[in-house]
Amino acid sequence: MDNNKVEQSNINTGGGDIAGGNIDKSITNKIYQNIKSVSRFDKSGKKNHFNVFPNSAYHINDLFIFPNSDFIDIIDITEENIVEVNENEELLKYIIERKITFIIGGYGVGKSILSKKINFDLRENCKVLYLDSTELSIYVEGRDLEDEYDLEDKPTLIIIDSIDELNNVNSATGTKASELVTLFAKNLKSNHKLLITTRLFQNDVKKSISMYATILFDLDIFSFGVITIKSFSKTHIKEWIENYFWFKEKIEHKYLSFEYSEIKRWKKGLQSALHNPLMLFLFCEHFINNIKEINYDIYDIYNLYSDFVNKTVKGKFDLETKKGSKQIPSQIQDEYRGILKKISFSILRHNYLNQYELNPENEFIDTNIQLFSISENEIEVTLKTEIEHFISISAISKEQEAPLKYNLLNCYFFEFYLKQLKFKDNNILFFFIAEKYYEIFSDFLLKDLDVFYNNFLEHCNIPLNAIIIEMLLQKLKSDENLTNIPTQLEAMIQKGYFINFEEEKHLNAMTFYKVNCDILLSIIYLNLNKPNTQFVNYFVKRLIWYTSSIKLIDSRILYLVKRFFKECSLIDIEIRRINLKGFNFDNSNFKNVKFIQNKIVETRFNYANFYNSEFYLSEIEKSEFNGIKGDFKFNSCVIKHLIIDDFDELKILFNRCLVQDITFRSENKFSSKKLSLEFANCDLRQIKINRTDVDNIYLKECFFDTFDFKSSIIRNFAINNSICRSKKTYDIDGQSEIKNETIN
What we know:
By secondary structure, the protein is of the alpha/beta class. Among the domains are: about 220 residues, Rossmann fold; about 70 residues; about 150 residues, no CATH class; about 70 residues. The chain is built from 21 helices and 35 strands. Strands 12, 13, 14, 15, 17, 19, 21, 24, 27, 30, 31, 34 and 35 form a 13-stranded parallel beta sheet that branches. Strands 16, 18, 20, 22, 23, 25, 26, 28, 29, 32 and 33 form an eleven-stranded parallel beta sheet that branches. It is globular and about 95 Å long.
């Protein structure tokens, strides 16, 4: 490949440091009079440097996964210029052959772990100096540096990790990082190589590298390449977990009960989170490592992000303390988190009217296609009081105030670009908002309903978001001190605090914020409620009517209500004449529930429990009933297309139904739970039974087409006074068996 071209390599790999850099100084030429001084701050020889993450026991080689990489010409990104790389040696050769190489990727995707791996693999062949952004702050301070080692003695690779941390939030143009790159590029000797990691801005590689490329071209340096790191694929997640298990078993002699096949039960939200190696590591450490049996249906994304945020904030102030700040971390962290919550509300409120893509009903993590942002000026106005208070309690000198102000917005998960501030991950923003809502519940709900409601209403001036609600519900469900939330909310409904439109004064008080507050509190009540027959029946009807009335004001409201019928308990309720298209009833409990004259299209009932429930005069199409359990009836229904997978002890009665296409299937007929089907006065067009142990199939006074049995056991097959429209009653393969057949 021509070295005069700027090249790019796309890589999937693992790792990433929980950084907490605090770099807020100016760079001048006087601070770097001799490039030899950098070796004094080499981290390669430091204890635990080659650990995957700080303060962890895992060496880089224990968990590292070789990346799938493509070398791409960044100036002409076409399929013809893509060269696949499959071996570690090729990757190292790519770096060694170039004067300067950039590693670019989003936060937490593995830039640091890849640079450490390169450091480890090349340390025998050349002198490697590893410098991270925290060490670079010492250069920036302009100290007089001396070192005994002469870089000219042997070939040297200098690694600068997270150079973007040098860009203070008020230097969005990247001046300081560019000055440092210029300084190194000018001083590099013929036997020196430079490897730099930096974050990807606006998901655009060209924008991320253009500033540095211009510098190098101006210096007549054309031998440089770019490596971009992507998030984990499912294969990488599997390999990482396998490596993690190997380490636990071989090194720590700890055997973990986990089958990777269980990943199919993970909700997509968790899978999305684990594509980030940093999140995957935290998941392994705090879920797989500590929980004997993982409940994949109620995994706690809130705690996953809480652990990440806590480590990041703590690392940030630990660093400041080590650098000589007089601040005491234990006094500062809660105040700082308060500022982050304030920023989160400001950002989302600033984007209130922006249309953003709604997450599918089964997604629990935002994909970050669009990052919410706010201007620098808006943040300064919003946080003026908070920043002044923060400084007043920080016990710092007058000359430290200005750097501290800048430092507040210089955090690992922030990005500042073109005078716009944003979280690098929307889910972190959503986490802080959920944390604030939880704080209001914890502080006020049990003390004073008026104070609670007014505080909650005040903080509903942002667009509702499903991820916020998911995180909030997970936190509320885990707090044993808040088990009486449903009782308190029920009292509020009865007193007219929310979902009240019986009096004109309540209708006149309707605003966007009031609607948000009503819906959010209703969703929380619905999801946390323990069965209360009469009141829940009344509440569900009122909530659905209310939602239908306001959906023209904000379509996102209807989407949220549909999504959060999941995991609810409904008893002795009639849900009548409602279009349930897109509703999510996953993991819900139904006892004596009647769905009457409903359109059930693309509706989810996965892992729901049914007891004596009924669908009457309803249309069912393309809906999900996977993993369901119990007994229920389809009465006078039209079933156009339905697949029921992996059920658990299931009994269904079909009465006066038109069944056009229905399939029952399990993973294996020998592990399948029992299935019992009864058809009375039905018209059956296509019935398929795959890999299933069927206890009973009974037809009475039906018209039917040929049944299709594959890899199944049919213990009792009885046909009474029914007519088959085909010559064959059933098609059966060689792996199926009918043990008892009766035809009358």
